[in-house]
Amino acid sequence: MKVIACYSMKGGVGKTATSVNLAYWAAKSGAKTLLIDLDPQGASSFYFRVQPSSKKWAKRFFKAYENLVKHIKASDFENLDIIPAHLSFRNFDTLLAGFNKRKNRLKRVLKGFNKEYDLVVLDCPPSISHLSESIFIASDMVLVPVIPTTLSERTFEQLMAFFKDNDYPQDKIIPFFSMVQAQKSLHKATMEAMSARYKIFLNTVIPYSSDIEKMGVHKAPVDTFAKSRQASYAYHELWEEVSETAKKLA
Ligand SMILES: Nc1ncnc2c1ncn2[C@@H]1O[C@H](COP(=O)(O)OP(=O)(O)OP(=O)(O)O)[C@@H](O)[C@H]1O
Ligand SMILES: [Mg+2]
């Protein structure tokens, strides 16, 4: 089982759009996939039309894998299950602060899914916190959407530096360009500069696309309502590149 986090400390960069479409394509390609929505906003749960639990359960989240199992919901798609977010997940940081070995908590609970799933996708909230650190430890791959603009470049550099300063393996960080508007000279120049500086960017580029925005209207992954369109191809390609990269991991 591989764990892939869609993560950035920056908000609104495409983490949720990536989680939803990546989980969809992974499941479609035959991988038993579990999407865990860690963001109290619950956006990926919404896109999959999955209702959150009616009870607060953040307190039990990091205690044992069995607590998570109770909250697994089936999606409309074969091979794809969801653990929806609950608003009480906003307390994750405070809760984690109270645990011994808090950084390893998430890894420990996720281990329980090893037999049942090939892939766990984590849709992460935009922060750099106790939860983020537990995500860095639990994940085999930290997939980072980067909008090619100056501030996003800066945020990405901060993330690389954070990994280095805290001895997290930098090779877990797998960035790709998101919401790209190829006609913008700033986007083109930033992509060229960042790809030359960091040789770790995936080749797949996710374009800025109104089809991706429409996921909110259709409450579904982009392929289900915009088949054979550029945005759908781009996420399929992203999944293929990500799964090839995952195979090379130890
Ligand atoms: N490639 C894209 N093209 C156009 N719009 C996009 C694209 N990706 C995401 N969006 C839109 O941008 C907004 C933010 O996207 P998304 O929710 O995926 O980002 P996020 O990083 O998960 O945000 P947050 O930090 O709030 O969790 C949404 O309205 C989404 O529909
Ligand atoms: Mg999100």
Please, could you describe this protein's structure?
The protein has helices spanning 15-28, 43-47, 58-61, 65-69, 92-97, 105-111, 130-138, 150-165, 185-197, 210-213, 215-218, 222-225, 230-248, and strands spanning 2-6, 33-37, 73-74, 80-83, 119-123, 141-146, 173-180, 205-207. The chain is an alpha/beta fold. The protein has a single domain, classed as P-loop containing nucleotide triphosphate hydrolases (Rossmann fold, 3-Layer(aba) Sandwich). The protein has an 8-stranded mixed β-sheet with strand order 3-4-2-5-1-6-7-8, with helices on both faces. α6 (105-111) crosses α7 (130-138). The longest helix has 19 residues, at 230-248. The radius of gyration is 17 Å and the shape is globular. The protein starts with a strand and ends with a helix. The mean pLDDT is 95. The site of magnesium ion has 5 residues, from α1.
- Can you list the strand order of the major beta sheet? 3-4-2-5-1-6-7-8
CATH topology: Rossmann fold
Name the helicity range. 40-55%
Into which percentage range does the β-strand content fall?
15-25%
From the alpha-carbon coordinates, what is the Rg to the nearest angstrom? Answer: 17 Å
Give the beta-strand count. Answer: 8
The number of domains: 1
> In terms of quaternary structure, what is this?
single chain
The helix-and-strand class reads alpha/beta
H/E series: EHEHHHEEHHEHEHEHEHHHH
Average pLDDT works out at 95
Cα end-to-end separation: 11 Å
Low-confidence stretches: none
- What is the name of the CATH class? Alpha Beta
Note the overall shape. Answer: globular
**Main sheet summary:** 8 strands, mixed
Q: How many separate helices?
A: 13
Bound molecules: adenosine-5'-triphosphate, magnesium ion
Say which CATH homologous superfamily is assigned. Answer: P-loop containing nucleotide triphosphate hydrolases
Protein name: Chromosome partitioning protein
InterPro entries: AAA_dom, DNA_Partitioning_ATPase, P-loop_NTPase
Organism: Nitrosomonas ureae
Domain AAA: 1-164
